[in-house]
Each structure stands twice: as C-alpha cells, then as structure tokens.
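## Example record

The block below lists the input lines for one assembly entry, exactly as stored, with component labels intact.
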Amino acid sequence: MPAFNQSRQNVIKLIFLVAFIILAIRLLYLQLSSTQYDLLALDNAVSKKIVYPDRGIIFDRKGRSILENTQTYDLMVMPTQLKGLDTVGICNILKIDMATFRERIIGAIVKNGRYRPSIFESSLSVEAFVQLQENIFRFEPGFFLQERPIRSYPFKAAAHILGYVGEVDSSILRKTNYYYQMGDYMGLTGLERFYEPILMGQRGVRYQIKDNKNRIVGLYENGLYDSVAIAGRNLRTSIDIDIQVLAERMLHNKLGAIVAIDPRSGGIIAMASGPTYDPNLLTGNQRRNNFSWMLMDTARPLFNRAIKGQYPPGSTVKPAGALIALDEGVITPAFGLGCNGAYFGCRRAIGCTHKTPGHAGNLRVALANSCNSYFSHLYRLAIDNPRLGGTVNGYLRWKQYMNSFGLGVRLGVDLPSEDKGLIVDTSFYNKLYNRSWSSCTNVFLGIGQGEMQATPLQMANMMCIIANKGFYYTPHFVQSIDGQMASDTVLNRYKQKHQVTNISNETFEIVQLGMQDVVDQGTGGVARIKGIAVAAKTGTSENYGMIYGKREKLKDHSWFVCFAPRENPTIAVAVIVENAGFGATWAGPMAALVMEKYLRDTLSAARWKEVERIENTEIILPIVKAKRNRLDSLRKEKMRKLQLKATASGKYPGKNIPGKKTAAVHYHFSAIKPDNEEQFI
Amino acid sequence: MKNNSFEISRGIDWVLIGVYLVLVLTGIASIFATTYRDENIINGFLSFKTDYSRQLLFFLISIVLAVCILLTDSKFFTATSIIFYAFGLILLILVFPFHTDVKGTKSIIRFSGFQLQPAELCKLFVNLALAKYLSSLDLNFRKLRSQLIAASLVLVPAILTIFQNETGLALVYLSFFLVMYREGLPSAILVIGFSLAVLVVMTLLIDQNLLAIILTLAAIGFIFAARRQIKRDRSVLVLVIAIWVVAVGIQRFAVPYFFNSVLKPYQVQRIYATVGKDFQVDAASMSDEDIKKMGDKKKAGNYNVKQSTIAIGSGGFWGKGLMKGTQTRYDFVPEQRTDFIFCTIGEGFGFVGSIVLLGLYLFMLFRIISLAERQRSSFSRTYAYGVASVFFFHVFINIGMTIGIIPVIGITLPFMSYGGTSLITFSVLLFILIRLDADRQMVIR
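Predicted structure tokens for the full assembly:
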C-alpha cells in the first residue's frame, strides 16, 4: 500500500534515537556528574553505631575490686512480632496487668516504631530474670533479653570517692566538642569523672546497613571501616576498703568526715563523708528516683564533706602556727609563755582552758596542753615580725605559709570539685577595718577560729607535713593505671614532693613530741593505742548556723587530727564530726579506730564493740531532727498517695514508687547549712 | 509444509530472540538481586513462591506460548485479529464487575493465585486489529473517516483503561499513533501533538502571565517575519492568530481546568514533582481516598522518584556490583521489582550497565523497524511498527520516570519488570512478529 511513506521509518528511528539520547544524558548527569547521590544512598542505608567498651575496674590497695561491671538484663520487645504470643505469661512473670502491658507496647511503638526493638522492662529483678530466662523461648521473637552492663560497687561503700556514671548533658556535649553523643554515659562525679578518659576506654564504631524500615540487616562492607572498641583501663588505688567501710560505719547517723592518708606517698587510704549512701542506688532502673530524693535532702548525702565541707579548724591548726613561728625564727622550741587562764595581749581576754602555771612553758608543753594564749601570741609574733616590716606584710607572709601548707588553696586531689577552704587576703581586713587593723584584730586565726576554714582533707594533709617533717605529696587515690603509657601524665603531679618548711628535723621532733604528749598525757588520750606512739591534736571549733532565720551559736564541731606511728608515720588521719562537742569525745575515738585497724590490720572484740557504740550513736542537733521528721512524714504521705493511686488504677504497687529503695539510704536529714562565713568567739 | 521441524526454524530472526533472552534473563537476575533474602537458592527457585522463581515460571510459560506461536500458521493471526480484539474488549468490560482492588487499581482480575490485567493484554489485540484494519485492501488512509476509525480502534480500550484507574497503561495506546503516522497519517498531527505537549510542559514551568506574554511576542515576531507572505495571503495571518488564540487558551484555561478538575490530586502532585515544583492542594475538595494517597509520604510520587534517582545516581560509573546496591537491596525504592526494576541495573552496574541496557533496547527497536521494512505484507509491517512503538513507549516512559524526567505513571519495563501479564504479553507480541517475519516470503495476504 502506501509505499511512498517508507521514508517515514527514518523519522521514527530519529524519534527513538533522540528519546534514548535524552535518557542517556540524564543518566550521565545522575551517575557521573556528582557524588551527592552516593552520600544520599549511604545516608539512607548505613548507620553508624558506637560500640561501647567495658569501663575500667577500680581496685583498692590489696587488689580487691571496689568498682566493677556487672550485667543486668533488659526485656526487649519487638512490637511487630507480638501476634500469637503468650502475653498473659509475660504479664504473670513481670506481675503487671494487661492494661499496663498494652500501655508499654504503645509507648514502645511511639518511641522507636514497630520495627525496632524497645525496652519493655529495664534492669530486670533477679527472680523475673530467672523465670524469663527459662521461658524466653515461649515469648520469642516478640520478646528477648538483652544484656546491659552497669557499674556495681561490691562493698556498697566509697560512694563519694568512686562517684557514678550518668547520661551526658548538653553542656558536656559542647565542652567535649561533641565527642560524646546524646544518651552516652560518662563519669559524672568522683574518680569516675576524674579518670573518665582512662576508664571509658576507646569507643569503637560499627557501620551497619539498615533497610527502609530502619532495621539493621548487616555490616557495611563486611566491617571494612569498623573500628574495635578498646576496654577501659583499670585503676589501682591506695584505698583500703576495710578502713573505708569502717569509717563509713562510724559516721552512721552523723554529719562529718574522716580522711586517712599515707604520708609517705600521699595516697589516700580512706575518705568517708557522712551521711553517705549505697552507691549501687545510683545504678539500675531506680537511679532517677533515688537521685532526686538524695538531691532534695538538706543533709546533702551527695555532698562530699571530706573535700567540700569547710570548717573552722580550731585547735587542730595550732601545730601549723608553731611551724610558721619556728620557720620564721621568731621563736625557738624553748620559747615559753606565762598563761593563767587567758590571753591579755589584746584588748579582749582570750580564754584558755588551763590555768596551771607552766602549762605553756615551752612549745612541746604548750602543744600538749593546747594553750590558746600561747598560740595567739605565736600568731602575733609571726605577723608582727619586725624583719618583715608591718602587719600587712607579716600577714601576707603568714598567708603564704598557710597556702604552702595546703590551707586556703585547692590541694589538687584526684576528685572533681574540691573546695579550697578559706584563708582571707589582706584586702578583706582592709575593707572591713578601713585599713586600720593589727595582729590583734585577727588574733583568733592563731587558734583556728575567725576568718579561717579548712576541709578535712586539708587537715589530714597538714598532718602529713608534720609526720614527714616538712614535706607532703598531693593527696590522691590512684597509684597506677594498668597498662600505663608515657602519655598518661595525669599521675605525674602526684609524684612531686612539696617541701614546705626548712625546719630542722630536731625541731620538728619537738612539735611531734608535743603532739605525742597530747595523746599520752593531754587532751587526746582517747586515741591511745597500745604499743604505738600516736601524735595527735584535738580541736573543738565554735560555729554558728541560721535557725529559723536567726543566727545562733551551735554546738561545737568535734575535730581530731593525728598520725602514727610517731617515729615512722604510715598513716595520718583527720576526723570531724559536726556539732558533736569536744574533739576528744567523738572524733578522737574514730581516728583511733581507723589508725588501729590500719596499723594492726585487725581490731579486738572490745574495739569492735566500740565501733558498734559509735555507729549506733546519733549525733544530730534536735532542730535538725525536727526538720528531718517533717521531711520524712512528707515523703511517707507522698508514698501513701502514690500507693493509693496505684491500687485504684489496678496497678501493682511498689514498682515505681519513688523513694522505696531510698529507705536503704543510711543518712539523715539536716535543715542546717553550716554558716561559717564569719566566725568569732 | 513438508516437514514441520524444518518449517519452525526457517526464517526465524535469531538475533531478536537472542536480545529477548538476554533481556528476560537480566530481568530475572535483577528481581533475584532485589528480593533474594538469604534463603536456600535451589529451594527459592523451585518453590515458585519467591518473586524471581515466579518470574522464571512466567518466562517458561512465555517460551511454551512462543513455541506454540512459532508452530502456528501466520495466517491465523490475520484471520483472528478482529475476534481477538472483540475478546479483549469483553475482557476489559468484564473487569468492571469482577475486579479485585489491588493498590488502588481496578484493572486486575484475580483467579487461583494469579492476577490477570486485561489492560496490559489488550495492547496485543489492539495491535493485531490495527494492523488488520490498516492492511485492508480497500482502505484509503488519507480519508478522515478511516483515520477516525483507526483512532477509535485504539482509543476505545484506552478510555476503558482510564476508567480502571490505569492512566499509565492507557497512555501506552497513544504510541499506536506512531504506527498510523508510518502508514500515512498527516505529519501535522504528530507536530501538533508534540507542540501541545511542549505547551503543557511550558505551562507547568513558566508563570501563566509570563508565558502569555512570550506567546504573544512570538506571534507578533512571526507576523513581522512573515509580513510578505501575509501581504500575499491573508489566511496566513488568520492561521497565526488562530494558533495564538488556541495556545493562550490552552495555557490559561484548558490546562488549569484539566489539572484542577479532571486529574486526581496525587496525579497532579506527581506531575509537578517531575518538573521540580511543589503542589499545593486544596484539601477540602479531596476525597478521603485521595487524601490517603497524598498523605502517605512513602507512596507520594516524589518519594519513589527521589529514592530511585538516589539509587541510580549512587551507582556511579561502574556501579556497586550485583546485589551490592544498598538502595535496591534494602527496599528503599518502592515497587522496585516491577516498575522500578531499572534501579537495580543503575545502582548495581552504574552508567556503563545502564547505557548497555539502553543500547540493547535501542538495538532491538531498530532491528524491529528494519524487520518491519522488509515485509511484503502490510499487515506484518504495521504489526511490527506497533510492536516497536509499544516497546519504545514502555522503555522510554519507564526509564524516564525512574530517573525523574517523566511523571510516575505505573508502566513496566518490557521483559524485565516482575509481572506475569506484562512478560507474557510482551513475549507474545514479539513472537507473533517473529512468526510473521519468518513467513515474509509468502505472498500478500
């Protein structure tokens, strides 16, 4: 037929060709011109998963692990695979009802979607885990168990030292330049925080392929780009966990702190702060509840009094005053003062507990008797030292000494947020007294009152200086890091010796003997240990607090500082018990027990009885108890309401009620925040 | 007909069969690559429950049918073409009461586990009928009447298909106008059709008023350039003005009306997505079903194309290798074993693989045209052009939509996409051509 249309085949061929060329050009553009599609495809299908290594373990001086990792198990649910499963069985094991079950499933779907596993119940209780593990085949694949490593504290002690891990917050994210990601855990306090880079190890990265529903389906490129997680390294500390437990026992129902240091190395043997808590409360699924209760508590159990409690040191500072006077050369050990019960060098009389003549006949005797007049005078001699020219210079020199002894400055212990105590600058007095002040103005500094505060750690360190006859090592916990490398410079500064006086050994001997006399015949007799020469100093420091808006004088703090054995000291201890009266009453016996346990490694039955007696004594001001009871009843009321609500809605009570576990916290409430800003007699 | 076995193989175009086999096997391999999920391969192939094994089954059925076709006398197709056409129409009508709703289409009849899509099948019957009509001895195709008859032969099933919500399949019937063009349809119709298409695309791309100004300027410019001819013949001026009026009318009124009132919102959305524009819908005027189609983000035209362009784009020059494509392996591209099967090639074998595949299709089309031109019988020639046109339309639209230059209309890639009706229809289309071609030495029928 229309054969003349034959030429149209070329037109049709041309149309085909042009169309295919258009396709080819578009392909050229898509596949060759840019790499954005590669990235988009990777973004679609490859997810980066951080692999967390085990955190390092912390050991005490005898190689016992005091902070380790254990496994808890989470029950996971995959919402898409629930059809036909024995959901009633799950409910029976977990002791929940169907309404709760449904609620949780919906929650899981909302949070992670149907195709990804979500936590159904976290940190299963032991009995639930055992039952589930035996029966899990009945509930698979909708339910499965997943391990989760958590930190555990086998001795239930040293909470303040070891610290805890928690989720990072946004400020940490910024500070670490987004090394951490939202939801990561890191050490937040204590050694966990300070040694975070060492304990955490090195995170690994795994690239996984996911499908269009975000399910993981395999490894990207067979793991070519993955990096392996390297476990965190272990820390070897100088802590003696037995001593630590003992110290914490003795602080039960008391506010205060005990610090014990090995003066030869600066290694901290024990550091207890009362009230304390079982650190295991801050792991596991009740962490949030427990934490909020402790945070609300006015006694501040999370507050480490050993490094953050700042108290007027009272008489315990007298040996330091002696050292300054000796080093400055304003006295010799033979220097004596006639004291008949008060110091009259300044306008006001400063009381002294002793009246007998000669109780301050020389340095040693004055120390043993803790003569206020003697040390007030010593302070004035140091400040008014004519060689320095003027009170201001004298005071500056004195402050310099105090700072070099570690008072009024941060010592640099390997814990975060240490406080520095208080040694005020001359500007403080200039401002307060309009530049006209003398050594009499602040003469109380000589006996550890007034504008002076120290932490228990600082006082323990002070003891180290005297025990060592003039030098100390910065107090610290960690002695070595497993697999230590040259790049681990963090411990270097703890190897550095701080020489703080140039007093001859013989002169030091006199100060030490004076302190030994404190125990043997003076105020510190309670610290006597048979067969061991103990050098000590008691302290009874006056303090004030705000009670119902009124500033009132509170019962004295009980201080006790000591070291032993006197000739060759291996332990230096500082103890403070808030509002417990004389230093020798409570702080002294505690310090003695710590030293004895450490030096003898054991306590006799009689001594254990003494421990028990201390443990069972409550030393809390009546006013504090009143407030504590109020808070307690508030909490009880809240629990009761929650329980009512839970029973009303048919849920099983007791599971998620805040504070249920906190009942195990052995501390008590205090409404009083020590007000130590301006102290005077 | 002395010897049957001798007869079958004689005159058969083995080149075309070779290309056919390569394409089908590539298709099965691609389906395997996207749907294989670590099951036992032998079981997977023998169970006929996996997609690739079912496609293999469809392939075997196609081969059986092909052998039957090659055993059939070519006169059979001429003689029965009208009956087949009628059968096809009846099937298309039967769909309305007997369809099963699958993914929004109303074009599928389901029986004993298999699905039949008459709209897909009907292309074959239309092609036969059109060939039969255009090859009638007493036909004068220059007459408008015969042109209208030919057009309605094609458009009736197309309209029935549109009513089954299969706009894409209906559009395929437009490809038969290429056949009519070859057989003498005035080129003006092709030109007008093409111009209309350009105008519609321009309307979508360019601001309404700006386009009107451009069209007006173009008309004025043309009148100025052709002022001499206009002086001689006033009708040129009338023609130009008439074209201008129609063009502006279309872009100002017809297209907006068509988009707002005729097309469904999801279709408009897909069209706009292709030209890279957002489509604002008036939700109040939409039916619930429409809102569902729009609302499901993953089903929206934009998502499919985005994922398939990512898949193909990430293939690069050499591709990621078979079964190594993350996009296609892990279900990011919806419908990837059917309409978006090209992604597997694009991602797995990159630019090289895509071009080779395009080349293979182009070679096949040219081969069919050269086959067509060597026919003595105009029935065979027309039929062959029909086959070429349908193949071309499918390949161009399908690949065009996977790479984002054509709106998503669900039509398959011949021989490669998963789907029994599609594979068998295309195979039968091709093998009837091969049978006809084998008998090209016979006298005109």
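The CA atoms of residues 339 and 426 of chain B lie 15 Å apart. Chain B touches chain A through 49 residues (CB under 8 Å).
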